[in-house]
Amino acid sequence: MVSKALLRLVSAINRRRMKLLLGIALVAYVASVWGNFVNMRSIQENGELKIESKIEEIVEPLREKIRDLEKSFTQKYPPVKFLSEKDRKRILITGGAGFVGSHLTDKLMMDGHEVTVVDNFFTGRKRNVEHWIGHENFELINHDVVEPLYIEVDQIYHLASPASPPNYMYNPIKTLKTNTIGTLNMLGLAKRVGARLLLASTSEVYGDPEVHPQSEDYWGHVNPIGPRACYDEGKRVAETMCYAYMKQEGVEVRVARIFNTFGPRMHMNDGRVVSNFILQALQGEPLTVYGSGSQTRAFQYVSDLVNGLVALMNSNVSSPVNLGNPEEHTILEFAQLIKNLVPLEEGLNKAIHYFRKELEYQANNQYIPKPKPARIKKGRTRHT
Ligand SMILES: NC(=O)c1ccc[n+]([C@@H]2O[C@H](COP(=O)([O-])OP(=O)(O)OC[C@H]3O[C@@H](n4cnc5c(N)ncnc54)[C@H](O)[C@@H]3O)[C@@H](O)[C@H]2O)c1
């Protein structure tokens, strides 16, 4: 009896111990699982923090660059006048990325008009108009005028054509197509949309003139099969087309016969006398004068030409108009002026400054042009 009661007591105590032990084991297990969980979380959080700071390290310089780009995009455009809807014109400039065209673009943009430049970049460059890219009044279209163009405009300045002998002789057939088919296309556009068209013609329509100076009623003296015919005859037929469209279709036309022009953005290696002299002077070479140097030339500064083009476009003069500097100088005088870098000659100075910058730019790009010979006149070559 006593031993049975004793056994029951012992087994009751063991059961209680067992329960206690099981309880402790459970608590220990839960505690260790919780500990692992907390540990893993802190490792994970640590890892996330490290990744975040790594990403931040990479992204911050990019953010900086975007801020810089945004700053440069909030562009310092040249100042533009505000024009009311009534006065603001939609203006197309073909060849607007070229020497004259880009200055005309500047003037018309600053006057507050909406300007569309069309250019195939044969001799023009985006650099010439890049300071307008992004402006709400400006558009640049890469297009060849030999193909038709459909656009709504009020005025067309038709300048597209290579202008210097090496450029227009490079591909005479293309020069002819640009001046004939290109001009037809622009006149067709002017007719369709009722725009006024100004043709940038040239003093070369007078050819090798027999009268000096040439007035607009002189018909010229051009060799139709000579090396310059693609340009001279191309411009002559372009003028003919303008007046045919005026008479037959009532298109308003203006014809500017442009004489020698110089200034920033002119082509450095176009073989013409001003660019040759400036290049040679800057490169420390003697200036080459063909013949006696007593032959005379007149050069107008590009901003004068641009003012003349705009005045002609907005005038009621529909007959051809010569645009040039009436003041003639001998070639020797020009050579002397450029050689001495005469400070009074503001226009020449600006052109010289531009050429210096271009030489620096091209030196960095490992290319320095040599001047091509100017159109050769009879006589011997002299160096000043
Ligand atoms: N600069 C002068 O001294 C002078 C003298 C007389 C006449 N002009 C006339 O003035 C105009 C402009 O001359 P510039 O000196 O600025 O010459 P440029 O070569 O600098 O400009 C001509 C522009 O026309 C573009 N162009 C040529 N063919 C084209 C085509 N098929 N389609 C679209 N664009 C084309 C060229 O890429 C270039 O941007 C020309 O028509 C030229 O005959 C200039």
UniProtKB/TrEMBL annotation:
Pathway: Nucleotide-sugar biosynthesis; UDP-alpha-D-xylose biosynthesis; UDP-alpha-D-xylose from UDP-alpha-D-glucuronate: step 1/1. One of its GO terms (cellular component) is Golgi cisterna membrane. It is found in: Golgi apparatus, Golgi stack membrane. Residues 91-322 form the NAD-dependent epimerase/dehydratase domain. InterPro entries: Epimerase_deHydtase, NAD(P)-bd_dom_sf, UXS-like, UXS1_N. Keywords: Decarboxylase, Glycoprotein, Golgi apparatus, Lyase, Membrane, NAD, Signal-anchor, Transmembrane, Transmembrane helix. It is a single-pass type II membrane protein. Its cofactor is NAD(+). It is an enzyme of class 4 (lyase). GO terms for biological process: D-xylose metabolic process; UDP-D-xylose biosynthetic process. One of its GO terms (molecular function) is UDP-glucuronate decarboxylase activity. Its EC number is 4.1.1.35. CDD domains: UGD_SDR_e. Residues 5-78 form the UDP-glucuronate decarboxylase N-terminal domain. It catalyses: UDP-alpha-D-glucuronate + H(+) = UDP-alpha-D-xylose + CO2. Homodimer and homotetramer. Interacts with AKT1. Belongs to the NAD(P)-dependent epimerase/dehydratase family. UDP-glucuronic acid decarboxylase subfamily. Catalyzes the NAD-dependent decarboxylation of UDP-glucuronic acid to UDP-xylose. Necessary for the biosynthesis of the core tetrasaccharide in glycosaminoglycan biosynthesis. This is UDP-glucuronic acid decarboxylase 1. It comes from Trichechus manatus latirostris. The lineage of its organism: Eukaryota, Metazoa, Chordata, Craniata, Vertebrata.
